[in-house]
Specification:
The complex is a heterodimer of chains A (130) and B (457). With 130 residues, chain A is α+β, with helices and mostly antiparallel strands. Chain A is built from 5 helices and 9 strands. In chain A, the strands form 2 sheets. In chain A, strands 1-2-3-9-8-5 form a 6-stranded antiparallel β-sheet. Chain A has a 3-stranded antiparallel β-sheet with strand order 4-6-7, with no helix packed on it. In chain B, 34% of the residues lie in helices and 14% in strands. Chain B has 11 helices and 15 strands. In chain B, the strands form 4 sheets. Chain B has a 7-stranded mixed β-sheet with strand order 2-8-7-6-5-3-4, sandwiched between helices. In chain B, strands 11-12-15-14 form a 4-stranded antiparallel β-sheet, with helices on one face. In chain B, β9 and β10 form a beta hairpin. In chain B, α4 packs parallel to α9 and α9 crosses α11. The termini of chain B are far apart. Classes of the chains: A alpha+beta (130), B alpha/beta (457). At the A-B interface, loops of A face loops of B.
């Protein structure tokens, strides 16, 4: 099991969130999630400019064996989608916490971020799920 | 690969193995009150000899009339080899087999079908077929709504020059899924959809525009203008096309500046006999950008571990066995047997053969229109060019005339009055390549006679 970056927030759906300098929040899936999905072949990005509530499904990650929804962990406006993934979806497998980010949200309410798990709590969840 | 059902012996052996006396015992947990009672409307079994005689007698009542009917299903010559090959044991299944990759021949055939459909439509991808043309239009509309994410209205504009039965099917399938099908009027002079009829939608959120070619009246729509209008207004363009006509006409993938996004239609003209409405087959193709929103199965070509060429079901993550309720549709199989016939038909005719069928049909319909509209009390309704159907107006109600023609073993056309109030006294006629000059003269003589007699009476 790889090291979980300590500066990220995590969700029970195996996604992560990182607050950027400009106040937007980047969203991706965790190393555990990309391993479970297997080789990703297609990422359906969310629509930039659309508004989402916490828990809304807004993107799809498709591997050779499954297609899974990605939920926005926080409410807000979608400000960006990772254009790199259109031609190189495998980036999510190779660098899930870095270049493999999926989309960015400008949060309506930063308090929603505080409700997410920190690395230790997420690690505990992973241990629990075995 | 053989698919052999259980014999009585197999069943007895399996029941003995699990210690059950009767198959019914396996369902004993279902409360008696929930079980259907005896099927009272179903007659007792009759011997094969008797039922064969009954069925022959019923079939004979159809007769073999001279048919000038179109309206969505067309009588074309079917080379004898088409169904001879289709009904071989290796092909004789309506389904994509389970363990599909074990049936490489079936997958190759579907792949060839898809390749032919993409060639006819000039689009990038085709699926392995759908139920029929009408349900294909419903699926294409739902697909457009998924693919056009900028549009929130789920509004599909459907010209009234689209087969009205297709619209009813689309409303049945998609109406309860929040889709609005909005009608667009046709020009009474030309029978086609003018851009001006779309003016009231210019400022509204439109998800997709259906572009029929040829349309229900056999007329050629301004496909370039309509496709460009759709794209200029943030909508997708769905081509609804006759596959025979595509041998001659500009394919949907080349309409307007960017091409139609999706094309669909009824595949029955490709080697499938007229048969009380089915089974027929739908086809659908689209631009590559939308392939993940396409319903149905898709067969791909690949190489195995040893580098040998092979075929496989691909992009299955769209399908319901993987995506469950978020699948692109609940269609998990295709119209396999009918699709097989269509593929063999297209293979036998080739591109030039299909073009000859299209040209002969077009020319025969033109001759039919000339012959009939030369009669007193008959006139051609729409100006402009068309494919193998046309609309004629009589000087009296159509249905009694059609009934009189049927008495003479001629199916003369479809009364348009019930579907189109503004086309009272109008009928839709069709002459494919199966009609000879003498057939056309025979129809004209009979119609002249009937119109004359009715006047005397």
């Amino acid at each position: 099991m790889s090291e979980l970056p300590g500066d990220l927030k995590y969700t029970k759906d195996h996604e992560w969130a990182r607050v950027e300098d400009d106040g937007t929040v980047k969203i991706g899936i965790t190393d555990h999630a990309q391993t479970a999905l297997g080789d990703l072949v297609y990422i359906e990005p969310p629509e930039i400019g659309s508004t989402v509530a916490a828990g809304d499904s807004c993107a799809v990650v498709e591997s050779v064996k499954a297609a899974s929804d990605v939920y926005s962990p926080i409410g807000g406006e979608i400000t960006a989608a990772n254009e790199l993934l259109a031609d190189a979806p495998e980036t999510v497998n190779q660098d899930p916490y870095g270049d493999g980010w999926l989309f960015a949200v400008r949060p309506d309410d930063n308090a929603e971020l505080d409700a997410l798990m920190d690395a230790d709590a997420y690690q505990a969840l992973l241990d629990e799920e075995g | 690969m053989a698919f052999i059902p259980h014999t009585e012996e197999d069943i007895a052996q399996m029941l003995a193995e699990i210690g059950v006396d009767d198959i019914e015992d396996l369902f004993s947990e279902i409360p008696a009150g929930l079980k259907a009672a005896a099927l009272e409307g179903v007659p007792a079994a009759v011997p094969e000899m008797a039922i064969t005689r009954t069925m022959r007698q019923l079939a004979a009542r159809d007769g073999s009339p001279l048919s000038f009917l179109g309206g969505g299903a067309y009588e074309h010559h079917i080379p004898a080899a088409v169904w001879e090959v289709t009904t071989r044991g290796e092909f004789y299944s309506a389904y994509t087999p389970y363990q599909a990759e074990a049936s490489q021949g079936t997958l190759q055939l579907i792949y060839e079908f898809q390749s032919m459909i993409t060639a006819l439509t000039a689009l990038d991808v085709s699926n392995a077929s759908l139920y029929d043309g009408a349900s294909a239009l419903a699926e294409a509309s739902l697909m457009a709504i998924r693919a056009n994410r900028k549009s929130k209205s789920a509004t599909v504009l459907v010209p009234r020059s689209v087969n009205p039965r297709y619209l009813r099917v689309a409303e049945s399938i998609a109406g309860n899924q929040g889709v609005t099908f909005a009608p667009i009027d046709f020009d009474p002079e030309t029978g086609t959809t003018p851009l001006s009829a779309l003016a009231s939608w210019a400022d509204k959120d439109v998800t997709a525009l259906v572009v029929p070619q040829p349309n229900f009246f056999g007329r050629y729509e301004d496909v370039d203008g309509l496709t460009d209008w759709a794209h200029a207004h943030g909508a997708l363009a769905i081509g609804l096309v006759n596959p025979t006509s595509l041998a001659l006409l500009k394919p949907p993938g080349e309409w307007g500046g960017q091409g139609a996004d999706i094309a669909c239609g009824e595949g029955q003209p490709l080697g499938v006999p007229l048969s009380s409405g089915g089974p027929y087959l739908g086809f659908m193709a689209c631009k590559k950008a939308f392939v993940r929103q396409m319903p149905g199965r898709i067969v791909g070509r690949t190489v195995d571990l040893d580098g040998k060429s092979g075929f496989t079901l691909t992009l299955q993550a769209r399908e319901q066995h993987i995506r469950r309720s978020k699948a692109t549709s609940n269609i998990c199989t295709n119209q396999g047997l009918v699709m097989t016939a269509a593929t063999i038909y297209m293979s036998l005719l080739g591109a030039s053969g299909l073009a000859r069928v299209a040209a002969a049909s077009c020319s025969n319909t033109s001759a039919l229109v000339d012959a009939l509209s030369a009669l007193d009390g008959v006139e051609s309704v729409f100006s402009g060019a068309g494919f193998h159907e046309a609309v004629l107006r009589l000087d009296r109600p159509v249905q009694p005339v059609l009934d009189a023609l049927a008495q003479r073993d001629i199916l003369g056309g479809i009364d348009l009055g019930p579907e189109f109030p503004e086309l009272g006294h109008c009928m839709l006629i069709c002459a494919t390549e199966t009609k000879t000059d003498e057939d056309i003269r025979h129809y004209a003589r009979a119609l002249a006679d009937i119109l004359q007699q009715a006047q005397v009476a």
